[in-house]
Amino acid sequence: MSKGKFEVFVSSRNSQYYFRLKAVSGEIILGNEGYVSKQGCLNGVASVRTNAPYDSC
Hints:
By secondary structure, the protein is α+β, with helices and mostly antiparallel strands.
């Protein structure tokens, strides 16, 4: 089974860091709030990776 991929990028509009999770098909399946630092954004990715298996939605 193939997995999705996280992309980290900086917005040209507000210079904040964001991540999105893209499915293998290229569809964006998760977005997030802006982060002031890249490390904060990477911590957000790590949190999703850790906690997503426990989401009850």
